[in-house]
Hints:
With 435 residues, the protein is an alpha/beta fold. It has helices at 11-15, 21-27, 29-44, 53-59, 87-96, 116-125, 138-150, 171-176, 193-199, 257-262, 288-296, 298-302, 307-318, 323-328, 332-348, 384-388, 415-428; strands spanning 68-70, 74-76, 104-105, 110-111, 131-135, 154-158, 164-166, 169-170, 181-185, 204-210, 236-241, 267-271, 282-286, 354-363, 366-380, 393-395, 397-399, 402-406. Strands 5-13-12-11-10-6-9 form a seven-stranded mixed beta sheet, with helices on both faces. A five-stranded mixed beta sheet has the order 2-14-15-18-17. It has a two-stranded parallel ribbon with strand order 1-16. The model has no long low-confidence stretch (mean pLDDT 93).
Amino acid sequence: MTDSRRHIPRTDALLNDPRLSPLIELMGRGRVKGAVQAAQRRAREGEISPADVPDEVVRSLPGGPREVINATGVLLHTNLGRAPLSAPALDAIRGAAGTTDVEFDLETGRRARRGRAALAALARAVPDAEAVHLVNNNAAALVLAATTLAQGREIVISRGELVEIGDGFRLPDLLASTGARLREVGTTNRTSVADYAAAIGPATGFVLKVHPSNYRIEGFAATPPVGELTGLGVPLVADIGSGLLTPEPLLPDEPDAATWLRAGADLVTASGDKLLGGPQCGLLLGRAEVVERLRRHPLARALRVDKLTLAAVEATLTHAANPAREALAADPAVVRRRAGDLARRLAEAGVKAEAVDTEAAVGGGGAPGVGLPSAAVAVTEDLAGPLRTGDPAVVGRVEGGRCLLDLRAVAPHRDDDLFDAVLAAAVAIGVAACG
């Protein structure tokens, strides 16, 4: 009897199969090749027939963004989606994917406030806020505030806080797009309360205090704290950016919502997908009268979050642990031990690797200049490309002719996946023996 497994299509033949061409164009040759090899293994083990290999490749490559193991050492990497969600948040998203009570009261059978459970969880997390609201990101929170409170009026802001928020988007342009006018005060490095006071007049909509979360000004520099800007006779809107709701001992210089609200801010805005560890969204926290005005503005409808985001926010706030917080609080000694174990395993498998001390960063526009002790597995630079195109993709950082796979942002349960990915990449370029 002929063994049908001997007729498994060759890899090069499959990669030239017209059925796979659209996938290669959409997802890249490296990812499709990985799926091809996985399907071939299933055929060799008798799980599928050789004739079904192309169809199995198509079935195994769902659409959507690719999974990436973040070994860059940047905990909240904007290009990699910032905070990874917790297991409870993922479960909540799956539960909310179908029909839900997002805007319906099951007890009364009547319409209810949209996302009330998520909003209640946010209110519990920040009791200093009289009211809370959610929009689809922090930029949207600022746009809603500017449109509601200062359209056709002035926003008073320090010249040292006119930040660029990424991808070429600049805060002054964002605010001006709402129809508000910016009244710049002070200088790049020094602004006083008197500068703000002198600029306030009948045309003032509000004072905006922005935490420069992605850069630092050092040396001959000064800016008044939030508490000194609360008695100027106009609302004070304060953007903390990073999403800390309460003080974080590991980041003592990073502002948090509770502290700025207690200091007198009328409205605090923040991101949900940074240090909070949740999905992308914008948090609005503050005085009830201000938040309600924003919530009832027609623009709020265009900026509202969907049911999946609401579910993830509620779960993130309800469960204290999440990957972002765990990475931030990781014990450097444990990270070093993991790096040593992984480097040893790779060396035993024939891959040149060593454990090295590194310095990780918060990222995501948070805690600029703050280094976090970490450790990485250093492999040869030529593995960086194959790792990025593998399945799962692994993104490290290239320094000094080596590819560093920093483990601070890699969950411990992914160490085996990282080992497999490095070994597969080494086999692919011929620097390790197969098997």
